[in-house]
Design a protein that fits this description.
The structure is a single chain. By secondary structure, this protein is mostly beta strands. It has helices at residues 4-8, 140-143; strands spanning 21-22, 31-32, 41-48, 53-60, 67-78, 83-86, 102-111, 116-128, 133-134, 150-152, 171-172, 180-182. 5% of the residues lie in helices and 38% in strands. A hairpin with a 4-residue loop joins strand 5 and strand 6.
Length: 183
């Protein structure tokens, strides 16, 4: 007999090897993100269990890789948008590269302190922005209620924020329902 804990983790049996959480199952991910704006942080809601170690964040490029990049980084925040884990600055011109491929970047190791809402996000500074793989478009009405499920946050960014920094409030935008997984 499966326990409630086992039932809650069943989707991870189909996640990439080593994943500790995943936005949606791979077969449900077929969309293309809206156009990203250089230097803007994009966030997506993440439901994480307490005591989950986050050492890597992975997003997937969908068809168009970054070009002319100067900065790129991934971030994990708590429900109040306080940065808990962040990757090093990826400064290569094509750091968020490859088409239809996952991009995994290591973070400072962070263990979640509660079960509930967190946000994962990315920021790219480039002349040619990548297009990201997303799940189904979140209905506008649903994405505009609290908590915001996906959208944009801080603008004019370049280098990664320090842990403990609070990002600006999320402006809902339903075309940034990014596929991600943590490991």
């Amino acid at each position: 007999m499966l326990t409630a804990h086992d039932k809650a983790n069943l989707p991870l049996y189909m996640a990439p090897s080593g994943a500790t959480s995943e936005s949606v199952g791979g077969r449900e991910v077929t969309g293309t993100s809206g156009t990203l704006t250089s230097g803007t942080v994009y966030l997506r809601a993440a439901a994480l269990k307490q005591n989950t170690l986050i050492s890597n964040l992975t997003f997937c490029v969908r068809g168009t890789a970054e070009t002319g990049g100067t900065h790129a980084w991934f971030v994990l925040t708590d429900s109040n948008l306080v940065v808990k884990a962040v990757t090093a600055d990826q400064t290569g011109a094509t750091a968020i590269g490859g088409t239809n491929t996952p991009v995994t970047v290591s973070t400072n190791a962070f263990t979640t302190t509660y079960s509930g809402l967190y946000y994962v996000g990315l920021c790219v500074v480039a002349s040619g922005m990548p297009v990201m793989l997303v799940g189904a478009t979140t209905p506008t009405g649903l994405n505009s209620v609290t908590p915001v499920l996906c959208g944009s946050s801080s603008t004019g960014q370049t280098t990664p924020p320090s842990t403990g920094t609070t990002l600006t409030a999320i402006t809902s935008a339903n075309s940034y329902n990014f596929y991600y997984y943590t490991s």
